[in-house]
Design a protein that fits this description.
- This protein is mainly α.
- The protein has 19 helices and five strands.
- The chain has a three-stranded antiparallel beta sheet. It has a two-stranded antiparallel sheet with strand order 2-3.
- The longest helix is centred in the C-terminal third of the chain and has 35 residues.
- It is globular and about 80 Å long.
- It starts with a helix and ends in an 18-residue tail after the last helix.
- 36% of the residues are buried.
Length: 431
């Protein structure tokens, strides 16, 4: 039973400890969201964000979990870390030194992680300065000047560094991916206020009951599509021949190579959103009329924003899949273990076949991610509903939930529990 499956969580001391540790760090994160940077006129800042709903600034605020509209110590959120990760992953393709580090195993990954941390600090300094200058231009600073700018830059950079540490600790000692869970917590915690706002719109007559029902049905449909596709796989049949190891002979067996439809998960919309925020950061430092015009046109629902967003989602779907899945290595490992795909010659032909199949299903995955992220946002912004009910937020919430549940289930299964499902009904498939 599902209920008894969840009850098994607390029967495993290590799993219970990991979950409680994760919850404790997420609570620390939510407390930090309410610690403001000194020297800000809170009322003036609240008015600005009330007008900025549905803009790129509103998206930035969503990813920070509401910390930006309060200008708390976590106002930059985890986005500088994500941006640094994008830059490092792109550089691993063109910089031989980073490419060698990537192939060196754990030691190489640790070195790349260290470079990512340094990049996070640099980007946080730039974005922190942009926010400080932008706030002075908006007239929300009580005592503008270099004292305020330096204090804001140091505070925001320290907050992002602390968040980065929290995320790494959750990944290492907790359950789930720490960075994704921080973004997940920032979105989920705002759901009650979003529902209260929808109720206010309904009672004041600004939104009709029919429109509300349509939006609820749309959200449930999007959630259903996300769950269905995230667990979808293309299974390539693999046959293993008889082989002799020492004095034992192993019989041939049939298996399959599972290729997920959406291999990259929630990474493409997060990466794409991070890149889309860059013009707004630059516009906060340098006053250039044409750049300000571009920033003004980057509103969810506008053709320019949605076109760029979809293009970046496609790029990161293919790029992240290429970074995390190497068909040549898979084909070589398969050949070493005596495996082959029926009708396909082992070696290079197998690698080409896997790559061709992966390219096709990644196209379907990219179309799915783009549709989930863009179509609901276009419809919802027309009905003046809070943006964090959009497709990007739903994809992150559902995707991270599936991933975390699958990790919990893996811990249960290694200790001979049946997971969350009834026996024989299948297991949750994680990324």
């Amino acid at each position: 039973m599902l209920g008894s499956g969840f009850g098994n969580i607390f029967k495993t001391a290590e799993l219970k400890k990991r979950i409680l540790f994760t919850l404790a760090l997420l609570i620390v994160y939510r407390i930090g969201v309410h610690v403001p940077v000194p020297g800000i006129d809170g009322l003036a800042l609240a008015e600005i964000f009330e007008r900025a709903r549905g803009t790129i600034l509103g998206i930035f605020n969503m990813f920070s979990g509401g910390a930006l509209e309060r200008l708390s110590v976590f106002a930059l959120g985890i986005m500088p870390y994500i941006s640094a990760s994008i830059i490092l992953q792109l550089l691993t393709v063109v910089v031989p030194h980073l490419e060698r580090l990537k192939k060196e195993g754990d030691q190489g990954r640790k070195k790349i992680t260290q470079y990512t941390r340094y990049g996070t600090v640099v980007l946080s300094l730039i974005q922190g300065f942009a926010i400080a200058v932008g706030l002075e231009k908006m007239g929300t600073v009580l005592d503008p000047g270099w004292d305020f700018r330096l204090m804001t830059v140091i505070t925001l950079t320290s907050g992002t560094a602390f968040l980065m540490w929290l995320g790494e600790q959750i990944t290492e000692r907790g359950i789930g991916n720490g960075i994704s869970l921080i973004i997940f917590a920032g979105i989920v915690v705002r759901m009650p206020s979003a529902m209260a706002n929808m109720y206010r719109l309904l009672t004041t007559g600004e939104m009709g009951l029919f429109i509300l029902l349509i939006l609820i049905i749309l959200m449930l449909a999007v959630v259903g599509v996300i769950i269905f596709v995230e667990q979808g796989q293309r299974r390539i049949p693999v046959q293993y021949a008889k082989r002799v190891v020492g004095r034992k002979m192993y019989q041939g067996q049939s298996s399959h190579l599972p290729l997920k439809i959406n291999t990259s998960g929630v990474i493409p919309p997060i990466f794409a959103s991070s890149i889309m925020m860059f013009p707004a950061t630059v516009a906060g430092i340098i006053t250039i009329p044409w750049l300000q015009g571009i920033v003004d046109s980057l509103r969810p629902g506008n053709f320019l924003y949605e076109s760029l967003f979809v293009g970046m989602i496609f790029f990161f779907c293919y790029f992240y899949t290429a970074v995390t899945f190497n068909p040549v290595e898979v084909a070589d490992n398969m050949q070493k273990n005596g495996g082959y795909i029926p009708g396909i010659r082992p070696g290079r032909r197998t690698a080409d076949y896997i790559d061709r199949v992966l390219t096709r299903i990644t196209l379907g995955g990219a179309i799915y991610v783009s549709a989930v992220c863009v179509l609901p946002s276009i419809l919802i912004t027309r009905f003046n509903v809070p943006f964090y009910f959009g497709g990007t937020a739903l994809l992150i919430v559902v995707g991270v939930s599936i991933d975390t549940i699958s990790q919990i289930e893996s811990h249960l299964l290694t200790r001979h529990y049946e997971g969350f499902m009834k026996k024989g009904s299948g297991k949750i498939k994680g990324r």
